[in-house]
Automatic annotation (TrEMBL):
InterPro entries: Ald_Oxase/Xan_DH_a/b (IPR000674), AldOxase/xan_DH_MoCoBD1 (IPR008274), AldOxase/xan_DH_MoCoBD2 (IPR046867), AldOxase/xan_DH_Mopterin-bd_sf (IPR037165), N-heterocyclic_Hydroxylase (IPR052516), OxRdtase_Mopterin-bd_su_IorB (IPR012368), TAT_signal (IPR006311). Gene3D superfamilies: Aldehyde oxidase/xanthine dehydrogenase, a/b hammerhead, Aldehyde oxidase/xanthine dehydrogenase, molybdopterin binding domain. This is Isoquinoline 1-oxidoreductase subunit beta. The chain crosses the membrane at residues 33-54. The gene is iorB_1. Pfam families: MoCoBD_1, MoCoBD_2. Residues 244-322 form the Aldehyde oxidase/xanthine dehydrogenase a/b hammerhead domain. The keyword rRNA processing does not apply. Residues 1-23 are annotated as: Disordered. It is an enzyme of class 1 (oxidoreductase). One of its GO terms (molecular function) is isoquinoline 1-oxidoreductase activity. The lineage of its organism: Bacteria, Pseudomonadati, Pseudomonadota, Betaproteobacteria, Burkholderiales. Its EC number is 1.3.99.16. Keywords: Membrane, Oxidoreductase, Transmembrane, Transmembrane helix.
Length: 750
């Protein structure tokens, strides 16, 4: 999910959500902050903050967000507006508003709070946020979502302010108790200290007194030069549990009396279930029942093996419908024909027609990018227990409120009767922004009397994913006598994810996500026209795939910039430098990466070096890739990159995210492709949906550029910037310009 969605999705109405939750919010309002303080059961201080409008209790003067500041605690925890809790023992609990799926937010967000709260990071206890958009909405996304590389951008000020407000109250409580000026006290390591009298007191002893104080307004935040935690290389807080196996992912869920479901979905997009002969399946030991729903059939067993064997024994007939005739040729032909239409204008500067008329040279190209599956390490799974009066759901999801709403839609139960237990996610990449697996599991669960875990096999996962759309780009440039662009025209054709995911964001035929990067280039282009034509691939479901708009656009733009450099007979790095004069941060990362990679030095025969530059997710990124090409096989020898993501919370996280994103991007560029024949996905497992192996992974050198700018996102830039640098390197090695991904299939036929 990318910045185009972030801007467009604000205020988008979600199923069952309150339309007023984000209505009328400006960027200034997004940054406003409030605190609700009260005594927790048993004595404690609880501070909650959120980003919706703030009111003030006229009697107490306390700020109130989405609820009464004096609301009685429930089970020792203030709900629904509690993010930080400090109990009488001094224990600090943080309800993390984002979901941990390997990106490190369960470390970085606590670092922000611990920094201002003045507590050791290893004393903070973490918990998942429940579904509650009034409390946990990310205003950058317009909902309670984890995606778009927004977590730190969203949390940077509010989380720090929450910690600072709590610290200020605790210091005030201690000063009041000691009858000294609060300015003479300071907080450190979970204590308030009065140096002049050599007195100290732990937070736990102060929470009851602090809870009675009015919340201060506009508490100053630390100067970054005084940071002790933020900016340091902190070890991941979630690593120990992942190493010793106690971490709970959705796949790990075990509840009493649970049974297991193995499922077969209709192999043809848009098809439905016709009939099932379960005679043989029911004879298999451990098989309990066979459940039929609209487009799938599931076998319920005492364990996975029984359910799987029972599924194999079924005789299934499908109503394949018109989708059974769908082929890749039809899909691509439809896109090509759609590219002849004028699209919704995303950007128009100057006079493109006149620019082409004045150009000395014209360059035209068509780029294509295939459907892609997510193939997350943790296969799709969802455990449900549907009762007459309630429904519980266990899984790892990026969208807990949409999960709740999906369960409501199937069961007809109200929101307070749906309980969502969110867990760690073993890979999201946008797949778990969807809730189709929840809808299916609840439909099955309605027919099963006990809790049931629905688990998709890897084959079901790959063949029934929601795919990154197939994109078809027509791009042209007119070059002047100096080789620089005088005219730039770019038409993007493909499915609109936003039209389905957030309909209000799709306005006047324009999908802001599909055109991101393409419509806001860092380069100086005097005359440009960028437009978008929506063309849906029949019944094939499409969804976000790690970077989405920036990923697809950067491949096209940075490959084409390389084509222009070759046409102008100018070094690719120099060509970019000459166009980046108005974007100094982009120029800086390019220069940093080029120097680190020793750009311009000789490479061995059969090898090539390529470059790409990107500005997306609030970050600037440059990447240089060295490859070797031998008989159509590409080996990535080295990757060097520079990233300016503004102020860095945890450099370890930045480096890990960049490395992981690059590996993900290499896999996608070299191998990944979903193809359709007779309405069916032809790939079914890692045998034919290939992954990069560990011994094929190159050294990845990450250079973090020091910056005082506000934080940008880092989860997706590495993936988004990789592909063009790789294909540009292949061009340098072979002279073959690859405009159609994946690389492997194109080199074999080039």
């Amino acid at each position: 999910m990318s910045q185009g969605l972030l801007d467009a999705h604000k205020g988008a109405k979600r199923p069952q959500a309150d339309a007023n939750e984000t209505r009328g919010l400006s960027r200034r309002t997004f940054l406003k902050f409030g605190v609700s303080v009260g005594a927790a059961a048993g004595g404690g201080l609880l501070l909650g903050f959120s980003l919706p409008a703030i009111s003030q209790d006229q009697k107490t003067g306390k700020s109130v967000i989405g609820g009464d500041a004096n609301e009685a605690p429930q089970n020792g925890v203030f709900a629904p507006n509690a993010f930080i809790q400090i109990d009488t023992a001094g224990k600090v609990t943080l309800v993390v508003p984002k979901v941990e799926m390997g990106q490190g937010v369960y470390t970085s967000i606590p670092m922000l709070i611990a920094e201002e709260l003045e507590v050791p990071l290893d004393t903070v206890t973490l918990d998942h946020a429940p579904p509650d958009e009034k409390l946990f909405t990310d205003p950058l996304l317009g909902g309670q979502l984890t995606g778009g590389s927004t977590s730190i951008r969203y949390a940077w000020e509010p989380m720090r302010r929450a910690g600072a407000t709590a610290r200020t109250l605790l210091v005030a409580a201690a000063a009041q108790q000691w009858q000294v000026d609060a300015a003479s006290c300071h907080a450190q390591n979970g204590q308030v200290i009065h140096a002049a009298s050599n007195r100290s007191i732990g937070y736990g002893q102060l929470v009851e007194a602090a809870a009675k104080l009015p919340a201060p307004q506009n508490v100053p935040l630390k100067d970054p030069k005084d940071f002790r935690i933020v900016g340091t290389a902190v070890k991941r807080l979630d690593s120990p549990e992942k190493v010793d196996g106690t971490a709970q992912f959705g796949l790990d869920v075990r509840v009493p009396d649970m049974v297991y479901a193995a499922i077969a979905n209709c192999p043809v997009f848009g098809g439905t279930l016709a009939s099932v002969d379960d005679t043989h399946a029911k004879k298999i030991p451990g098989v309990r029942q066979v459940v039929k729903i609209d487009n799938a059939v599931a076998v319920i067993g005492d364990h996975t093996w029984a359910a799987k064997r029972g599924l194999q024994a079924l005789e299934i007939k499908w109503n394949e419908g018109a989708g059974a005739k769908l082929s890749m040729k039809q899909i691509v032909d439809d896109l090509a024909h759609a590219s002849e239409r004028n699209g919704a204008v995303a950007r128009k500067d100057g006079n493109v027609v006149q620019g082409f008329a004045n150009a000395k040279t014209r360059v035209d190209a068509i780029y294509q990018q295939p459907f892609l599956a997510h193939a997350t390490m943790e296969p799709i799974n969802c455990t449900v227990h549907v009762r007459a009066d309630s429904c519980e759901v266990w899984l790892g999801t990026q969208v807990p409120t949409r999960v709740r709403d999906a369960a409501m839609a199937v069961t007809g139960l109200p929101a307070d009767k749906i309980v969502v237990h969110n867990h760690l996610i073993g890979g999201g990449f946008g797949r778990r922004l969807e809730f189709d697996m929840v809808t299916q599991a609840v439909k099955i669960g309605k027919q099963v009397s006990t809790p049931v875990k629905v688990l998709w096999t890897r084959e079901e996962d790959i063949q029934h994913d929601m795919y990154r759309p197939y994109y078809y780009d027509k791009i042209s440039a007119g070059l002047g006598a100096n080789g620089k662009p005088l005219a730039w025209q770019h038409r993007i054709v493909g499915s609109s994810i936003l039209a389905r995911f957030a309909p209000p964001a799709f306005k006047n035929g324009l999908d802001p996500d599909a055109v991101e990067v393409a419509s806001d280039l860092p380069y100086d282009l005097p005359n440009q026209l960028v437009d978008y034509v929506r063309q849906e691939p029949h019944a094939i479901p499409t969804a976000f795939w790690r970077g989405v708009g920036p990923t697809r656009s950067t491949f096209v733009v940075e490959s084409f910039i390389d084509e222009l450099a070759a046409e102008a007979k100018v070094d690719p790095v120099k060509y970019r430098r000459d166009l980046l004069g108005k974007t100094p941060r982009a120029l800086n990362v390019l220069n940093t990466a080029a120097q680190a990679a020793n750009w311009g030095s000789a490479v061995p025969k059969g090898q090539g070096r390529g470059v790409s530059v990107m500005h997306a997710f609030g970050s600037y990124f440059a990447i240089i890739v060295d490859v070797a090409v031998d008989q159509g096989e590409v080996a990535v020898k080295r990757v060097v990159c520079a990233v300016d993501c503004g102020m860095v919370v945890n450099p370890n996280t930045v480096e890990a995210q960049v490395q992981g994103g690059i590996i993900f991007g290499i896999t996608g560029a070299l191998y990944s492709e979903i193809t359709i024949k007779d309405g069916r996905v032809q790939q079914n497992n890692f045998t034919d949906y290939r992954m990069l192996r560990i011994d094929q992974t190159p050294p990845i050198d990450v250079h973090i550029v020091k910056s005082s700018e506000a934080p940008g996102g880092i989860g997706e830039p590495g993936t988004a910037a990789l592909a063009p640098a790789l294909t540009n390197a292949i061009f340098a090695a072979t002279g073959k310009r690859l405009r159609h991904l994946p690389v492997g299939s194109q080199l074999q036929t080039a």
